[in-house]
Amino acid sequence: MSPLSRRAALVAAAGALLAGCGGHPTGQATTAGATSTPSAPDHSASSGASGQSSGRAAHPLARSVPVGLRIPAIGVDTPVMRLGLAGDGSVQVPPITAHDQAGWYEHSPTPGQTGPSVILAHVTVGAYGDGVFRHLDRLRRGDRIAARLENGTTAEFTVTEVRTVAKDAFPTKAVYGNVDRPELRLITCGGPRTGDGYRDNVIVFAALGTAPSSAGER
């Protein structure tokens, strides 16, 4: 596949990501409302740094699956489930249920490993109301995120950037691209409602360890 074709596949995959935010409560993972051909992110085609500001160096952690996520600034304390690929090749999203929770994309690094670890959650869950990431867009640079790992340790991250982007302009390379340190990506829907979904994605970028020296504290 040519570089251009690979990038097109990446964009298609990103466009399907969390397209079901705010859908009807079915108890099933859903990508309803996706406007592009769904496929899995091709991590081998993603290279280059994400462009985030560097903080103090933090040593990578051993691989361990995340089981919980805590974000004090927006009151999030949720279990984390595993997400893989749906039957159509799209990235799964958490089921729309009353007991909403976040999901870790299992084909990304675990939190604390070198590279971008990806965690997804809904902004709303249909008739059940607010989703886990309802206030994700309120995070600011310097806010802390803690991922509880299966081995009993916790990966502590600091927010470096928060972006709201149109789904058809999803920054695939910045989200999935190779980086030389442990980073975290939190993704949900945002912006205006469009039928059963939302127009935009909210993406939080975070790095393992302490905040950059220029980051302000709340």
In angstroms, what separates the terminal alpha carbons? Answer: 47 Å
Tell me the count of domains: 1
Mean pLDDT: 78
| CATH architecture classification name | Beta Barrel
Coarse shape: globular
Assign the CATH superfamily: Sortase
Query: What share of the residues does DSSP label as strand, in percent?
Result: 25-35%
Provide structural commentary.
The radius of gyration is 16 Å and the shape is globular. It has 218 residues and is mainly β. It has an 8-stranded mixed β-barrel with strand order 1-2-3-4-7-8-6-5. The protein has one domain: Sortase, Chain: A, CATH 2.40.260. The chain has helices at residues 3-16, 172-176; strands at residues 66-71, 76-83, 102-105, 115-120, 144-149, 154-166, 182-194, 197-208.
